[in-house]
Specification:
The structure is a single chain. The chain is mostly helical and 148 residues long. It has two domains: 95 residues, no CATH class; 53 residues, no CATH class. Helices cover 74% and strands 0% of the residues. The chain has seven helices and no strands. Helix 2 packs across helix 4 and helix 3 packs antiparallel against helix 4. The mean pLDDT is 82.
Length: 148
């Protein structure tokens, strides 16, 4: 772990991370790394937050405590962020119409993507605030049963 933290310090130094932001960078990167390594369930679950806590809380805390032994971090905040990142991954896999997933994909699309046309990117940039609401309306209407 010490080697990892020395490398992280070097990365922060070479990229001009301000001293006041370094603690945030450390616990955020730790949370991201842990959240990305945890597997998703093989099928949708009723409550992804409860699933995460049941399956992974102790593992997450053990990983964060190991990091905390060499570099003091905000363990509780890092655990909470880990949970939220993992649930976002879950949503991307099992609830792609969720607002957070749509917003994240829109950010990627606005940065440029070889699969999306420049016209789509331009409209998305120009009307990003409308796109999420309008897409949600269509998604809800498509899933809703027909009423006569």
């Amino acid at each position: 772990m010490k080697t990892c933290l020395l490398q992280l310090q070097s990365i922060m130094d070479s990229n001009g991370v301000e001293l006041g932001d370094r603690a945030e960078v450390v616990y955020t990167t730790a949370a991201r790394a842990i959240a990305y390594k945890l597997p998703l369930p093989t099928s949708p679950v009723d409550n992804p937050y409860a699933y995460f806590l049941d399956k992974y809380k102790s593992e997450v805390m053990a990983d964060l405590c190991a990091i905390n032994e060499d570099c003091v971090i905000r363990v509780e905040q890092a655990a909470e962020l880990t949970k939220h990142i993992w649930v976002f991954r879950y949503s991307a896999a099992y609830d792609p119409a969720s607002l957070s997933v749509m917003a994240a994909l829109d950010v990627v699309a606005m940065q440029g993507d070889r699969y999306l046309s420049p016209k789509y990117q331009a409209i998305l940039k120009k009307y990003s605030n409308v796109m999420i609401s309008a897409t949600r309306l269509f998604a809800d209407a498509i899933r809703a049963p027909e009423t006569v």
